[in-house]
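During the reporting period the student researcher (J.K.) took over the structure-prediction task from the postdoctoral fellow and processed the backlog of single-chain submissions. One of the processed entries is reproduced below for the supervisory committee.
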Amino acid sequence: MDWNWTWNNFIHNMVGKYVQTPQYDYVKITLHCESCGDKTDGFTCPKCENI
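J.K. obtained the following structure tokens:
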């Protein structure tokens, strides 16, 4: 995995969310595992970690 591409993609998504979010609303981030789709909150997936 190219970490530079991943970091740039993350920054691009955050800027997009910031621009599209109304002034008095908040930005919500939900991260999911790429393999199984479980919610990870930015940590490694416990199901896919040992695979």
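The committee noted the following: The radius of gyration is 14 Å.
J.K. will present the remaining backlog at the next meeting.
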